[in-house]
Design goal:
Bound molecules: ligand PMT
Distance between the termini: 32 Å
CATH class of the largest domain: Alpha Beta
CATH superfamily of the largest domain: CoaB-like
Number of helices: 14
Number of strands: 22
Structural class: alpha/beta
Helix content: 25-40%
Strand order of the largest sheet: 13-12-9-14-17-18-20-21
Number of domains: 2
Oligomer: single chain
Amino acid sequence: MLAGKSIVLCVTGGIAAYKAVELCRLFVKAGAEVRVIMTSAAKEFISPLTFVTVSGNPVYSELYAAVERYDVAHVGLAAEADLFVIAPATANCIGKIASGIADDLLTTAVMAAASTVLLAPAMNVRMYENPITQSNIKKLTVLGYQIVEPEEGELACGDIGRGRMADPETIFRVSASLLARDKCWQGRRIIVTAGPTREALDPVRYISNHSSGKMGYAIARAAAIGGAEVVLVSGPTNLAPPVGVRMAQVVSAQEMREAVMSYFPQSDVVIKAAAVADYRPSTASGQKIKKGGDMTLTLVRNPDILAELGELKEGRYLVGFAAETEDMCANAHDKLRRKNLDMIVANDLTEPGAGFDVDTNVVRFIFNDGTERQLPKMSKTEVAEEILKEIYARYRYKKTRKSD
Ligand code: PMT
């Protein structure tokens, strides 16, 4: 899969360094040429000989040491690389790259890199959540660096929280899709919706739901990696915009409808992962509503954006989601038919690890030709990749827009 690709695997000093060995093995097994850079701190955790053995190449560490292959090691490594992967990426390493500090072989090589750089952060939860680390990650993301988010769980230090380096398999998969960016979706325009909508009651209160946006953002990110021109129409979330994606930030269902409709004529595929509020208060007070006795709210229906797209779709491929708490399959089939969809991704909100505000999902694909596919619990990044693979396989054979 990665035959002929050159990957520079950068290992920094954290306990997750041992997992980088498995990542190196996966790259080599897939046919990549892997060159490993280790910081001096990384060598405290794992011997360079391990990487020499697994990669079949020398390990590079010293900025000024003469090396066999390159006149200037950091420039040579950077010039050859199709991809840089920094795993684990410590808070220190992330901070240095974000600040433009280049004081060792790793940071100078990364600074000289013209290829994509993928970072897999790994650190203590408080270090990860520290606003300095978060702002460094945000800065790097905006600059086009790719991040594989760490996972939640028990950390080596005994603390519990987010900070554990993503699984080597996940980092491998993201690396492979970054390298494959040339690119099955090139020239195609995809609209993705994500997150909740908020329906105002007054200037300080609203009706909404628990959607975090993670599912939709993962789809947008994967589609952009695949070369698509992506517009992400997003309700309010705390997530950083994915690299290379055009953002349309909205708040209410009506705003989401307007944004989707404005991009719809140029689109080829629409994937609606947003949890749109079906109802909104019939009036939104201009001033904060004062406390009094009991209060009755009158709600009115919001537009069903997806059903409207279903009527207008022509040759576009239309994908909806169904978030259900009962009779998932029957309800999803009904939505697929009523909204004239090509595919629906059904998730059962009562299933552990599925649905709102978790990093994983458990989904069932249902297609308009009657076929179905149940997926096991997987990360939302993996679910996103599977959704796009299915669409690609089926959409290729469909007639595209009339204007094509
Ligand atoms: O954001 P996360 O925390 O990662 O959670 C992911 C998710 C649970 C939100 C996602 O996986 C999901 O299931 N999204 C759809 C949730 C939902 O609102 O489903 P629904 O059954 O109410 O709507 C069916 C479809 O119609 C959806 O594609 C929805 O975007 C669309 N819809 C619904 C109502 C409406 N007024 N307009 C719409 O377009």
